[in-house]
Give the backbone structure.
Amino acid sequence: AQGDYEHADDDLGRARIYLQRAGNAEDAASVDVNLGLLARLPQRDSRAIGHFDRAAEIFRRDQVRDNLAAALLGKAQAQLALVDLEGARRSSGQAWALAAGLANPILVSRLGLARTRVLLRSGSLNEADAVLAKVQPVAADRPLAILLKARLAQARGDAQRAARVLQPLINGRDGPLFEALPDWVVASAQSEQAVAEDAPWLALEIDSLSGPQDRIALLLARALWEQTHQKNEKAARQFGQAMDLSHRSGTPSDVVRVGTAQAWFLLDQGKLDQATAIVGELTPYAERDFAVAQLTAALYRKLGETRLADAAAKRARQLAGERNPDRRALDQGGF
């Protein structure tokens, strides 16, 4: 599969040069969008941003609003995957500002949901709620809209509502929305709703899933489920597998999502050395991600490093936005 992507890269790269040489700037910019989307495959998001920037510059100059919005959307998604929350806020805000003048309902739906996701990750709960209320998701986007609605409820401390909202995404006719499974496990545990041991997704073969994001989400959900049932050895294995897959095939955002959950599990087990190794890997994100800053403060507190713990806790409060800085991000829809 990797070879197919590389061939596509080559073909699109050649096409872009030919169009540029022919003076066809808009078509060349469209190729840039496709190159950016291709580069958004796992572990290539930093390359994607350059493609989207070049395309946006042309579309902005020529006032091609729908293509400009699509380029900014792609950029925001890449920035979110790289845990560049400030950049994602900026890009998604610019893209959403264009939505009112667009006729394509699919694009408008994607713009609104991407903006909502970025705002939730940034702790801007009221603004996220306002944007989500305006979005009219197309059929393919409705599951994501439901998931974001549940995450908003979870962030506001209403785990029971979050679990209720997530229910159709877990027990749907076509199987679960895998991205929603970790949210479902956490919300169910907090609202004291048992997740059945014979839940079909617990028995799924990981290799039967095609995309790395679905596999990571399933492994993380299983780890959290094992943790809530005090099956700590099994949980440790599932967390380890999820982290390994995040390193191999995921994005920095996947590493942060899995790493924070795994490190909290280890801290709760008193395994400070193992937790320290994970938090050390996540350190580059502690200045920009609430969950990592909060986790870092907890680790330093356990290690008796009061000054470092206080500094990390201060940063966590700054990054919390409208979230509760005293509740774990994991328990506030922090996926």
In short: The first helix runs from residue 2 to 21. The chain is about 70% helix and 0% strand. Residues 1-6 have pLDDT under 50 and may be disordered. Residues 22 and 127 are 44 Å apart (CA to CA).
